[in-house]
Amino acid sequence: MADRRSPCALVLLSGAFLFTSGFPALAQAPPDEPAVTVRGQTYTPRSILSRNMGTDEDQTTAFPPHKIVGNVYYVGTRTLSSFLITTPAGHILLNSTYERNVRTIEKSVTQLGFKFSDVRILLGTHAHGDHQEGDALVKELTGAQVMAMREDIPALEAMRPGGKVHPVDRTLRDGEEVTLGGTTLVAHLTAGHTRGCTTWTMKAQEGGRSYDVVIIGSVGVNPGMRLVGNAGYPVIAEDFVRSFKVLRALPADVPLGSHPGMFNMAAKHARLTAGGPNPYQG
């Protein structure tokens, strides 16, 4: 059914849109264009960046931890996603965010009734500090095995908050699986935003149904990122094109992302707390 992919396609808006705006060299602040209107909402490059990152307070203040679907829970901040995937054999944490947020994530996990010390595996979406800077501290606190896409490892190794060595216990390649306690996540290389940007897919069970969960790494173009004439990353444009194709082909009943704004989390959480059908379920 083609409609099953439409939620994921909508989440791709910010990445595809910023991709088109990223071609001019960014010697100075580029015009805030193009503008795209979807379902009555108009987006520009700067509005999307502002939506995704928010303020410093947004990046460090816990969003109410809550169940999304099945064994998938949100434990991140207002604008930086962190997901807890629970299993009988321990838990998987996806995205440690900034190191200063790790204790906040720990508190959210505890509020949900789980033990942070039961985190056995730590995954990430891409090698930027707002998503994986806290990896070393999470490993220190839990002993979790840190797993990362091969292409992102050099950038992760350069990430050393307080001089801590960035741990990597297992190197992943495109299409590899990570399994714990009957739950399997598949790592999809969706490069461009970083060389090893990773989108994760898994099945979640709820109410007798199986749901395809997609956690998108990112397909956005950050300020200063060049898509043409990028000597440090000459195939960046080709990688983005491939990533769009990969993402559009993924079935997505529950589309999620590395920033809550990518999947309209605040509005969905409000509907969830009000009762009725689960708004996360595409």
Task: Give a brief rundown of this model.
The protein contains ten helices and 14 strands. By secondary structure, the chain is of the alpha/beta class.
Kindly describe this structure.
With 282 residues, this protein is of the alpha/beta class. It has a single domain (2-23, 31-56, 65-271), classed as Metallo-beta-lactamase, Chain A. 28% of the residues lie in helices and 24% in strands. It has 10 helices and 14 strands. Strands 3-4-5-6-7-8-9 form a 7-stranded mixed beta sheet, with helices on one face. Strands 10-11-12-13-14 form a 5-stranded mixed beta sheet. Strands 1-2 form a two-stranded antiparallel ribbon. Strand 4 (72-74) and strand 5 form a beta hairpin. The longest helix is centred in the C-terminal third of the chain and has 13 residues, at 236-248. The radius of gyration is 18 Å and the shape is globular. Mean pLDDT is 89; it is low at 1-6 and 13-27.
